[in-house]
Specification:
Elements: E1 6-12, H1 20-32, E2 38-44, H2 56-59, E3 63-64, E4 70-71, H3 74-82, E5 91-93, H4 94-106, H5 117-136, E6 140-145, H6 155-167, E7 172-179, E8 182-183, E9 188-189, H7 192-203, E10 210-215, H8 221-231, E11 238-242, H9 250-256, H10 259-267, H11 278-288, E12 292-300, H12 310-323, E13 325-333, H13 342-346, E14 351-354, H14 363-376, E15 380-383, H15 385-397, E16 405-406, E17 416-420, E18 435-443, H16 448-453, E19 457-464, E20 466-468, H17 473-479, E21 482-486, E22 493-497, E23 504-507, H18 522-545
Parallel strand pairs: 1-6, 1-7, 2-5, 2-6, 7-10, 10-11, 12-13, 12-14, 14-15, 15-23, 16-17
Antiparallel strand pairs: 3-4, 8-9, 17-20, 18-19, 18-21, 21-22, 22-23
Helix pairs in contact: 1-3, 1-9, 4-5, 5-6, 11-12, 12-18, 14-15
Bound molecules: glutamine (GLN).
Length: 546
């Protein structure tokens, strides 16, 4: 398509957590399936420059892009739905906006003017939105504004939307996601919160074009008419977003509501192409009708907040569908594991995943769990810190180096099997200073990883400071833990395996960031397959015993 880029803003009203990210990703999916080039951007109103330094308890997982940006977890949804990579430009925070304006001010770029929220901050916001469209030749840029309308933090963003709508009336559309609560005592759906939230947007000069109404019950025609009339939108622009059993249903629900049609009509885009969602439906069918089930333990220290491991949980959904297996994740707190209860907690599982993480909390439990998996031949998959713990466990229990550790946790250990990368040693700033983003990795022929990928070299995303200490590599390999993935430029170990086990693979990178509906990640797919094989043989053994 060759026309000017169109901009769709998605704002939220009434409460947070209505699923703006999923609605944005679903709209993008529908437009993409009609052949348009679409990207999604998230504007986060907080002051942090990026979410990299945020505790996962605050905002869930930090998602890492190919170019090494530490971003909001919604970008993970965008990539999983669209199968298109995002970048730093897809996630902008207030911190980043102010940082850029202040840098320009210090350079004297404002020529002695007083630097203000309007126009300087709002101009910078508009620049960040439009740069995405112009640079990569997108037909539609969908920009999700974090937070809820009326928050102090989001005011400059709403003002920027108002200005863009005024400047490009034919190219800008505002979708407002709101809630229609059901009061069971009255037995009624209530539209007042939505009316108030639209009123608030109007106070800031923005009339939404489309209202997406999150609801637990079907919206009756009279509720739709009422919302349309009081909120000043056309009847077909009141889109119902009913609770779904899986987020992967939402694009289809939006299709039923003709959300994409209304958006295209309002943007003045004509197309004869209908959405082609054949592959998506095949995935959904496999996801919803699994033939088998497995139970995989996920050991981590943030398991109370499942959003901390969002990409891992989603990668299991993709890999499960690929294997026609339902993956039930058993969330296990690493601090609750010890040598006395490890058998009881892991004994009935079909596989173990030890999660990424930082710091010393819960390390002993992770090491305990890995020892159990290695010794009992339980399928094991370690990611980042999970891989580092597998290395420590092997050093202690197989190489007989009882004090082996990572220098992240014990700086002066006599056996630093995991240690700080040379280029990290002089860095004192915490933000954006890790080994981040995509790096090459060569695979060892015949290894589990190489067979899973079906090729010899790969690229995967990283987010860590510490690494396998190559001084110990020979000893590890002689004793049965082999490096099967290596960075060709730096010689850093990227994957270790214990070939004597049926499945024991651990990666220094984060495979979960690259798993999408269209392309489930090979390491997750092969791990789930191994857990299925293990479950089958366990069942067979039980039958024989009985
Ligand atoms: N804390 C470890 C490191 O920095 C692992 C990081 C991670 O799991 N993402 O190397």
């Amino acid at each position: 398509m060759n026309q000017t880029t169109k901009y769709v803003f998605v704002t939220g009203g009434v409460t947070s957590s209505l699923g703006k990210g999923i609605i944005s990703a679903s709209l993008a999916k529908l437009l993409q399936s009609r052949g348009f080039r679409v990207t999604i951007q998230k504007l986060d109103p907080y002051i942090n420059v990026d979410p990299g330094t945020l505790n996962p308890y605050e905002h869930g997982e930090c998602f890492v892009t190919e170019d090494g940006a530490e971003t909001d977890l919604d970008l993970g949804h965008y990539e999983r739905f669209l199968n298109v990579s995002t970048s730093q430009a897809n996630n902008v925070t207030t911190g980043r906006i102010y940082q850029s304006v202040i840098n320009k001010e210090r350079k004297g770029e404002y020529l002695g003017k007083t630097v203000q929220i309007v126009p300087h901050i709002t101009d910078e916001i508009k620049r960040c939105v439009q740069i995405l469209g112009s640079k990569s030749d997108f037909d539609v840029v969908i920009t999700e504004i974090g937070g809820t309308v009326g928050d102090i933090e989001s005011l400059p963003y709403i003002e920027a939307v108002r200005q863009m709508k005024w400047e490009k009336p034919n190219d800008v559309l505002v979708v407002h996601l709101t809630l229609i609560p059901y009061l069971s005592a009255a037995g009624e759906l209530k539209t007042k919160p939505t009316q108030h939230s639209v009123k608030q947007l109007l106070e800031f000069g923005v009339q939404p074009d489309i209202l997406v109404c999150r609801t637990e019950h079907e919206l009756t025609p009279s509720v739709r008419t009422k919302v349309a009339r009081f909120c000043n939108v056309k009847l077909n622009a009141v889109i119902q977003s009913i609770d779904a059993s899986t987020i992967y249903d939402v694009p289809l629900l939006m299709l039923e509501e003709k959300f994409d049609e209304v958006v295209l009509e309002k943007l003045g885009i004509k197309t004869k192409k209908k959405p082609d969602l054949k592959k998506w439906m095949q995935f959904l069918d496999r996801h919803k009708n699994p033939k088998h089930e497995v139970r995989i333990g996920l050991v981590g220290k943030y398991v109370e907040l499942k959003d901390s491991y969002k990409s891992i949980a989603e990668a299991f959904i993709h890999a499960g569908a690929e294997n026609e297996v339902k993956v039930n994740i058993e969330w296990i707190h690493s601090e609750s594991l010890n040598d006395r209860n490890v058998g009881e907690l892991l004994g009935s599982l079909d596989g173990l995943l030890v999660a990424p993480g930082f710091g010393s909390r819960g390390i002993d439990g992770k090491i305990e769990a890995i020892q159990f998996a290695r010794e009992k031949n339980l399928p094991f998959f370690g990611i980042c810190l999970g891989m580092q713990c597998a290395v420590i466990e092997f050093a202690r229990n197989v190489l007989e180096l009882p004090e082996a550790h990572s220098t992240e946790i014990k700086e002066y250990t006599p056996d630093p099997v995991i240690s700080l990368m040379a280029e990290q040693k002089s860095i004192t700033n915490l933000g954006g200073t890790m080994r981040l983003g995509s790096y090459h990795c060569d695979l060892k022929k015949g290894s589990k990883a190489q067979k899973a990928y079906g090729k010899m070299d790969i690229e995967e995303r990283h987010r860590h400071r510490f690494e396998f200490n190559n001084d110990y590599l020979e000893k590890f390999e002689a004793a049965g833990m082999v490096a099967t993935g290596m960075n060709p430029d730096s010689g850093l170990v990227e994957i270790v395996e214990v070939p004597a086990n049926d499945y024991f693979v651990a990666a220094q990178f984060h495979p979960e960031y690259k798993s999408t509906v269209a392309e489930p990640h090979p390491l997750f797919t092969s791990f789930v397959k191994a857990t299925r094989t293990y479950a089958k043989s366990k069942k067979r053994a039980e039958v024989q015993e009985a």
